[in-house]
Design brief:
Distance between the termini of chain A: 14 Å
Oligomer: heterodimer
Shape of chain B: globular
Number of strands of chain A: 9
Number of helices of chain B: 8
Number of strands of chain B: 8
Strand order of the largest sheet of chain B: 1-2-4-3-5-6-7-8
Chain lengths: ~250, ~260
């Protein structure tokens, strides 16, 4: 397996991309992978979940690449190692960057693209499957967020907790933060400078409801942690690739 | 910014990003930011990235990298902890890489939490490190005789420090209630002393809401050189989660960089 990082430019915007190229010998590539050149794109979480899951997603990418799947990871503009500041992050931008990465995979010869989305990335991946004009072939959603308004609520809770720890009380309430967001166009929440546009996009995003997901139920799988077992990239890779290819 | 990797002394490939100033005279002073946790460069709401952007805008090249086994880097984490100096060899290699790729002749290390410990150790050992900004030094302060002897036998302490501790005890300088009796980090003291003695600029930054601040103040009075610069930022925790605290921190970093330039 070889890894290479590169810079993607969308207009004059730079996003960080890392491509884990599989160099598995042809005889050891699982049959269903060999017939087609499968790529997996890791669609990352947001906020501090990005840092907390990063190592696990890197290990998973390497494990999948060892098993014959090219894996591409990226960071949304203003997050992770991509250029810009967090207030430049938008939902529209995130979708666009995901599509751009998928186009890169097709340029590299991908005939099938699987999205592995963690948390917010799970939402984006499932949204791509359901709503995109050039959707992926299937999704593995790792503890996906299905309601982004609730996801933002978690950020406000973290902010409230941080303030209470620091000051003994909530110095700025959610209402005050949102009012500041509306008046100035940006507000700091739990260390992240969120733009009004991103806030509106996130809270206004459709909930991924069961009746919508059911229509594509043959094209996605869900992974949940039990909260007790340490992450095992090999086991997770086997789970993703399917039992019959467990020993690839 | 661009990706920049290097092979560590242990043979692992460490990945990072280099922030290079554009369209202006590039300073001969480069910076490396060392994050505190094992979560890598982007942890703590990308604090390292924002600091790098701030310094790059001021004309300084900045390198951020992930230690082995963290973030993007390969391999397993080194055995041991920041306290035991496990991350120092990679850090020293990173200083060389930064200078090689940017032509900078001097480097300053900015470390956050455990990264401040590694910065202190590494800074004392690299001749071209000229400045250290130690943010929120984690306090592992212990003066229980039993644990000190244990530290001594395990090579984590030394006679001079023990003599000082015992002398303080005899003089009645007690340990504040609630102080941890964990291993005493004598190496941190000696390396900070060494950097100060070598003429390096050493500053410590704490937030007034950081729970470690009281213990640091005690530690500082007893063990650190009086010439050490210490700044305590108002209404600031160790995570710099608010607009105001980040603004204060960035101002402090700019002041530190300006003083070294």
């Amino acid at each position: 397996m070889s890894e290479r990082e590169m810079e993607f430019y969308l207009g004059n915007q730079y996003i960080y991309v890392s491509h884990y190229e599989s160099t598995l010998r042809a005889s050891r590539i699982p049959r269903h992978v060999e017939r087609e050149r499968a790529f997996a794109v890791v669609v990352p979480p947001l906020f501090e979940e990005l840092a907390r899951t990063r190592r696990d997603l890197v290990r998973l990418a390497r494990e999948l690449a060892h098993r014959g799947i090219d894996v591409v990871r990226f960071d949304y503009r203003g997050t992770g190692l991509s250029a810009g500041v967090f207030e430049e992050f938008t939902m529209e931008g995130a979708r666009e960057q995901l599509e751009e990465v998928m186009d890169y995979c097709r340029d590299q010869g991908a005939t099938r693209i699987h999205l592995i989305g963690a948390r917010f990335g799970g939402y984006l991946a499932l949204s791509n499957l359901i709503f995109s004009r050039t959707p992926c072939d299937n999704v593995v959603a790792w503890e996906p967020t299905t309601d982004l308004a609730l996801h933002i609520e978690d950020l406000f809770r973290e902010e409230a907790s941080s303030q209470t720890t620091m000051f003994g009380f909530e110095k700025r309430t959610k209402a005050e933060i949102v009012a500041n967001l509306k008046s100035s166009g940006v507000a700091m929440i739990a260390g992240y400078r969120l733009s009004m546009r991103a806030y509106q996009e996130l809270v206004g995003s459709p909930v991924l409801r069961f009746d919508v997901l059911r229509k594509v139920s043959d094209k996605f799988q869900l992974i949940f942690s039990d909260g007790k077992t340490a992450f095992d990239p090999a086991a997770t890779a086997k789970e993703i690739l399917g039992d019959e290819h467990a020993n690839a | 910014m661009r990706t920049l990797s290097f092979t560590s002394p242990r043979g692992t490939r460490n990945k990072g990003v280099l922030f290079e100033p554009k369209g202006q005279d590039v300073s001969s002073l480069g910076f490396i930011f060392l994050p505190g946790s094992s979560l890598g460069t982007i942890a703590v709401h990308r604090l390292g990235i924002e600091i790098a952007q701030l310094l790059a805008e001021a004309g300084h090249p900045v390198y951020l990298f992930d230690h082995a086994g963290t973030g993007e880097s390969e391999g397993a984490q080194p055995a041991g902890t920041h306290d035991s100096g496990s991350f120092v060899p990679e850090t020293l290699a990173a200083v060389d890489i930064l200078q090689k790729h940017t032509g900078s002749s001097r480097t300053a290390l900015i470390g956050h939490c455990d990264g401040a410990v590694t910065s202190a150790y590494a800074g004392a050992r690299h001749p071209s490190v000229k400045g250290l900004l130690l943010m929120n030094l984690p306090m592992t302060l212990g003066v229980a005789p039993v644990s000190d002897l244990d530290d001594l036998f395990r090579g984590r302490s030394h006679y001079r420090t023990l003599a000082r501790i015992l002398g303080d005890r005899l003089k009645g300088k007690g340990v504040p209630p609630g102080t941890s009796n964990a291993n005493f980090n004598a190496r941190l003291i000696t390396d900070i002393e060494r950097s100060v003695a070598d003429g390096k600029s050493v500053s410590v930054v704490f937030g007034d809401r950081d729970p470690d601040l009281p213990r640091f103040e005690e530690f500082r009075v007893k063990h650190l050189p009086p010439s050490l610069t210490v700044r305590v930022l108002k209404d600031t925790s160790d995570a710099y989660m608010t607009e105001e605290s980040q603004s204060l921190l960035f101002r402090e970093i700019s002041r530190f960089a300006h003083g070294l330039s």
